Amino acid sequence: MRRLMMRDVKSVIVVGGGASGMIAAISAARQGAKVVILERLNRIGKKLLATGNGRCNLTNTNMDISFFHGTDPKFALGALHSFDYKQTIDFFDFLGITPKVEGEGKVYPYSLQSSSVLDVLRYEIAALNIMEKCDTEVLDIVPTRPGFIVKTKSGQLKGDSVIIATGGKASPQLGSNGSGYVLAEKLGHRLTEIYPSLVQLKLYEKYVKQMKGVKFEGKVSVGVKDKALRVECGEILFTDYGISGPPILQVSRTAIEQISKGKSPWVEVDVFPQYSKKELQELISTRLAYSGTKPLDFSFVGLINKNMIPVVLQCANIKDIKVLAYEVTEQQIQKIVEVLKNWRMSVKDFNSWDQAQTTAGGVDVRDVSPKTMESKIVKGLYFSGELLDIDGDCGGFNLQWAWSSGFIAGENAAKE
Length: 416
Ligand SMILES: Cc1cc2nc3c(=O)[nH]c(=O)nc-3n(C[C@H](O)[C@H](O)[C@H](O)COP(=O)(O)OP(=O)(O)OC[C@H]3O[C@@H](n4cnc5c(N)ncnc54)[C@H](O)[C@@H]3O)c2cc1C
Known about the structure:
Elements: E1 11-15, H1 19-30, E2 34-38, H2 46-50, E3 59-60, E4 68-69, H3 77-82, H4 85-95, E5 99-101, E6 106-109, H5 114-127, E7 131-133, E8 138-143, E9 148-152, E10 155-159, E11 161-164, H6 179-186, E12 195-197, E13 201-203, E14 215-224, E15 227-238, E16 242-244, H7 246-260, E17 266-270, H8 277-291, H9 296-299, H10 309-315, H11 330-341, E18 343-350, E19 358-360, E20 381-383, E21 391-392, H12 397-413
Parallel strand pairs: 1-2, 1-11, 2-7, 11-20
Antiparallel strand pairs: 3-6, 4-21, 5-6, 8-9, 9-10, 12-19, 13-16, 13-18, 14-15, 14-17, 15-16, 17-18
Bound molecules: flavin-adenine dinucleotide.
Flavin-adenine dinucleotide binds at residues 15-21, 38-41, 46-47, 50-52, 56-57, 137-138, 165-167, 170-171, 174-177, 179-180, 357-358, 385-387, 396-399, 402.
């Protein structure tokens, strides 16, 4: 076996130039390794540019393992502790990114430009003489004990260690086309079932089309049968196919997981989370008494979105929505309140991978060391980022996982 001499420089090949690949490359190069990033697209970091609506929510100060999911979310603890959100903020601060902490602990660059995060990463990559090879899709990784041969369309490269940081399958237009799963499986790793996460939901109810574009601050629950499984608050948006907005993306994982188990999940919307049913009933009764001879539907103008009014009344089984306000009975008001507070709709499906922000499932973490990110099957091979069976909630948790796992993988891949 070839022994690394004191003067030998370890060569590390990073497959994938996304968030986790870039930080892995930097961390390996800072340990003195000679590093190359192989990226299938024409430039690195394309997905990073799209994050946080172009603002890059790079981490979160309310870090807790409960924001992470997967078959064994605790696997993430090792990397999340070794390179935590404070180290992430310091890492980026050192590169020039002044942190800006917004609501719920979400951290952004003060410039509010994701391009600035990519710019400083690329500057550091160049400063460390890391080679970027774009338009270079990795097709195969062959262990040669010691080292590896990495095969691409345009030739092959030799390296002492390889880090697979190819991302999952979400938003393949930004590079992650699922090819990493093929590479990992071919090298003997198990995969868990993958499905899109942080994605909009399609609903069976055709009436949602009438409310396309309606936005409001509400509460959403997702559940099966009589059991609510997850609840989130925030801006909810109806679309022509169903429902969207940050709280929907957040609960989508739970709904899709249930669909994949053959169950029929529902979403329940609370349009007035700030009022109890009793308070809302009083508010509407007073409003209708005041409206007097105005038509019922018009009596709600100014309280809820106009495009929502006829749908709410239909769902409350009110046949004549033009009935005079004073003629509406208390039972009918109760029905309207029921709809506004517990508006249950059935989840039919979810939007495609193209719309998803992240991937649930992936490389089975039982085959990977949580301390080093090294494969337990192939020595010298490392994994990082979304490719692994770890995914986070909205709020900077997915990027934190990419930074933590990437940094640890790079550091260890560069060691003898
Ligand atoms: C629209 C959008 C907004 C998001 N916003 C946020 C946010 O604000 N905060 C947050 O925490 N998370 C956010 N996420 C999620 C986050 O961006 C990802 O979880 C994170 O980028 C994953 O990093 P990664 O390095 O593992 O994978 P990726 O960033 O997907 O990078 C993988 C890279 O590998 C390359 N590649 C794939 N296969 C090969 C191959 N065979 N050979 C060579 N190269 C290959 C790809 O082209 C890609 O560049 C968002 C995602 C999307 C889609």
